[in-house]
User: What shape does this take?
Amino acid sequence: MADASGLDIGDSVVRLRDLSDHGLVRLDPGPFGGWGLTESGRITDQELVREELDIVDGRDHVRSCYEAFLGLNPTLLQICSAWQMRRVGNMPTLNDHSVPDYDAKVLSRLIRIDVSAQRLCSDLAIVLMRFALYGTRLTTALDRVLGGNPAYVADTLDSYHTVWFQLHEDLLVTLGISREEERGASSGSA
Assistant: This one.
């Protein structure tokens, strides 16, 4: 939560408790629990991010960046799939990272797409500074991968793929687009 918000842990906890007191978030216990938005919190969040976008008159700019994101998204998903699975003969096999040349090719693709992702985050930050955090978080995940921790491609809560997914969700909420609307728009275009 702290990484995603750019706040330190103590400030994050204080703010989460305040949001909880107002019924906007709740703490779900259990092994996969954590803080999550309530329905009221989701509605409030949507209103606030749309209002923020209207204040800066940045809807067209963010829409253009979102379309650029959609152009990158299939490639990033292919990279993550290639990182997790590789073909041995004609059989898809879990990638155990025992073939350094294979992993190096996949990482090379990730590094190349990261250049576009960083540019995208910078472009978004021109109108909404909070999007700059995604660039920083993507860099951190990539640095961890390049430092020898392969889980940061797609297997941790702060992996490149997870941060990318969160960026996608933020774009959808900011523009007021549901996943269903997005799927419908993409299936309607050839």
About this structure: The chain has a mean pLDDT of 89.
